[in-house]
Amino acid sequence: MANLYFDESIRDNGAFIIGTLVISEEDLSSRIRAEWENMGLNPNDDEYKSSAIKANNEVSVKQRKFISYLVHSSKLALLVLPNHDRRQLGNYCVALVLQLLDTKKLRNESHELYIDENVFIDKNIKAMLEDSKVNLYLNSDSKLEAGIQLADHASHALGGILLEEMDIVKKQVRAGENSGYHPDDMLDLGFELWASLRYALIGNNQYIEGLSPPPDDPANPFFMVDGYGLYIADSCSEELAAAAKKRFGINYLGCIH
Q1: Mean pLDDT across the stretch 213-234?
Q2: C-alpha angle with apex 183: 177 to 185, nearest 5 degrees?
Q3: How many CA atoms lie within 13 A of 216 on its CB side?
Q4: Which of these, 202, 221, 32, 226, lies nearest to 106 by C-alpha position?
Q5: Buried b / exposed e across 51-75, counting CB within 10 Å, b at 16+?
Q6: What would the DSSP string read from start to end of 108-149?
Q7: C-alpha–C-alpha distance, residues 188 and 140, integer Å
């Protein structure tokens, strides 16, 4: 059985929403709440928010470091939709879960799906989850079901990556220590975010024409994410869909240094 946690990032400057599903066989909520207590926080009040200002906020920085660690040890699937289609966010989340089941990236067994507050799912769509043995917990409080805080973090990062792909936001950051680059090298923020999340993205290791080594070479570092861990809503414009496919549709797990 897997625990699935879902939240979204709304990017008005790009006119899109990214929803992210964090998947783990571990009860991440209990682990996060215990860590906040160890930090001297009250997990019923002091949740992690990706949008919170981190500068000069030592506690928030520590929370982010722990959340980042958990995200990297989990699995991620994502969906992209235009912001005018927000009412359908919950239905698209179900479509993503069913896609993972259909492609066998989720085992055919019982799963627990926790979705953040103010997300709606049509009754007939809920029935499809029930038929697939997925137990749904709508309007979950992210302080109690703290795994949602990971989905918040991942959605925020993935949203930033897509904004950069669309040439809407450009920002560079220092590579820093233990990055594989010189610490003072400047990297695009979108690249740095992708590099930190790429091993968590769900995809299918398969031969991809024009990218993969010869089909008989077992060392193929390319994974097809589109149609597996990536769901693009039909309501997306051609431009938005193309940008999402270009940035997330194929994942590379080879050397980047």
Answers
A1: 92
A2: 145
A3: 0
A4: 202
A5: eeeeeeeeebeebbebbbebbeebb
A6: SS-EEEEEETT----HHHHHHHHHTTEEEEEEE-TTTSTHHH
A7: 35
- Dihedrals phi, psi of 47, to nearest 5 degrees: -80, 160
Please enumerate in sequence order all residues whose Cβ is within 8 A of that of 97, keeping only pairs 6 or more positions apart, or say none. 4, 21, 106, 111, 113, 129, 132, 134
Mean pLDDT of 119-148: 96
pLDDT confidence band for 57 (50 / 70 / 90):
confident
- DSSP run (H or E) holding 239: helix 238-248
| pTM, two decimal places | 0.92
* Contact status, residue 153 vs residue 21, Cβ threshold 8 Å: no
Structure tokens at 1: 């059985």
Specify the pLDDT at position 186.
Answer: 60
153, amino acid identity: H
d(CA 207, CA 220): 7
